[in-house]
Amino acid sequence: MKNCKIFKKKEIEEVKKEVDIDKYKFLYEYEKNLFEEEVLRYRRLEDKAMKYLTSITFIMGSYLFLIRAVIEKFIPPTDCIECAILITTAITCGLYIFSLNYILKTIKPRRTVKMDSGEETINYFKNNTIAPIYLGLSKKYSKGIESIEKSYEKKLNYINQAHSSIIWASISLIISVIFILIQKWNV
What we know:
Blueprint: H1 9-17, H2 21-73, H3 80-107, H4 119-127, H5 130-186
Helix pairs in contact: 1-5, 2-3, 2-5, 3-5
């Protein structure tokens, strides 16, 4: 087991010196539970991104469908209200596109942590006592948690940026609708 990727010989020797199986078992279970919680948190964030994507697609499609006839009527613009309608519509579309960009970055497939398996791991289990096995697996889970947390933070940042863009796009949408209503009342 000199070349085992998960467990280093130094770690095995440390564990053999002082064996408290219950302590290592507790550590292993603790790290395993934390790992599973991080995976669930990561998946919930991706689910949230998918819900945002669905909502934005629906809102943007509906908005463009409803506004298309109005926009065609105002090109080229003849007064300030028509200019404002075109500008706020362009801003709304641009902000929705920005939010779509951030959401797509969030749901972009990424390489996730995978626990080692295979012949090397099986041989390690055969050739060692339980204490070094618990310690080695605990360290692997700990590294996995760190990796997931980094990916989670990156995705969370994208989701927050998407949310901010959605808020501003919604404000711009309301303003463009107000301008359209003002234009309709003036006619």
